Amino acid sequence: MRTTHQRIGVFGSNAFTLVNFRLPLMRKMVRHGHQVFAVAPDYDEQTRAALVAENITPVPVSLARAGTNSLRDSSDLVALARQLRSLKLDVLLSYGIKPVVYGTIAAKWAGIPHRYALIAGLGYAFGDGSGPRRWALRQAARWSYKLALSLTDRVFMQNPDDAHDFVRMGIVPAHRITRVNGTGVDLDAFPALSPVARPLTFILVARLLREKGIEDFVFAARIVRQMAPEARFLIVGGLDSNPGALSSTDVAAWVDEGLVKWTGHVDVRPYLAQSSVFVLPSYYREGIPRSILEALSSGRPVITTDTPGCKETVIPGENGFLVPPRDPDQLASAMIKFAKDPSLISTMGHRSRELAEEKFDIRDVNRKMLATMELSVSI
């Protein structure tokens, strides 16, 4: 057990995700007396100020989130190694494919003695698409991960399917994997809400990616409206630069048709409060979607797909339903169950909150990660 206070870097694919997903973990590190450096590209003044207010040092770096420009990536890797060396870190925790690959290699070059990786889902590269470009991307991701993860002390993975697949593909041995239940959810920030039976409102919260099943949600909405014309359908989420992203034109057409309301990227809590059922028909390689965890904590029934990461959040028939991916007819059938029996909204929502408390409390997730990294210092 390392008993002295450490200099810790947390490296993400952009500064916003450091605040949005990793701030509770970094805050916990600071409370244990460690000095924390938040390493990421794309800082703005608001993000920088949020970290400084928590006694966390922002460290902007150059790193393209997507794309494979080998000249720029090579230059970024060398510059990153220099920056990390200058920070004199004891520990680096990276998450996201590029930070894990480039950050871990750069950390090795920089002489950082303890290196950890968090695999928060396998993402676009390991999705179920086909074709030579997708095959080449998958192979590149596999070998890049294998190289980088061979340099880590420990690899955190958020669901058993991802862990199994990484072992099966020879990317990392099973004995170096630690399983955590997603990012976890702040049970106080997302308290249990009163059930909403009328109007029957289905909410999807996600980045606007096709692989999140947004088109299936819209097609299912058309089916449900035939049986329950008063039902409402909300899409909460912003546009994205991912190759599988939808455009604002796509969503505007659905809005104009009167099928859905689209909020853009906003605080989800007011919209969860007016919703009845949370829906995420994803076939993206999720870790465990935090959007579902927030819905569980808020006491909302969940309809999601029987896919890695998503299926960890639903006990079928108790707090929601699992449906096959890419099947809007089955998705609509699950939605219609709530129209036929509105009492499910309350009973299943109550079970969702219980599941959040039992399994997905962010305090438990962060406690396990800190203990694994030997950073639980008594102060």
Your description of this structure?
A 7-stranded parallel sheet has the order 3-2-1-4-5-6-7, with helices on both faces. Strands 10-9-8-11-12-13 form a 6-stranded parallel sheet, with helices on both faces. It has helices at 15-31, 45-52, 70-87, 97-110, 132-149, 160-168, 214-227, 248-257, 269-273, 290-297, 328-340, 343-359, 362-372; strands at residues 7-11, 35-40, 57-60, 91-95, 114-119, 154-157, 177-179, 201-205, 232-236, 261-264, 277-280, 302-305, 320-323. It is built from 13 helices and 13 strands. It is an alpha/beta fold. The model has no long low-confidence stretch (mean pLDDT 93). Helix 4 packs parallel to helix 5 and helix 7 crosses helix 11 (328-340). Strand 2 (35-40), helix 2 (45-52) and strand 3 form a beta-alpha-beta unit. The protein is globular, with a radius of gyration of 21 Å.
Give the topology.
Layout: E1 7-11, H1 15-31, E2 35-40, H2 45-52, E3 57-60, H3 70-87, E4 91-95, H4 97-110, E5 114-119, H5 132-149, E6 154-157, H6 160-168, E7 177-179, E8 201-205, H7 214-227, E9 232-236, H8 248-257, E10 261-264, H9 269-273, E11 277-280, H10 290-297, E12 302-305, E13 320-323, H11 328-340, H12 343-359, H13 362-372
Parallel strand pairs: 1-2, 1-4, 2-3, 4-5, 5-6, 6-7, 8-9, 8-11, 9-10, 11-12, 12-13
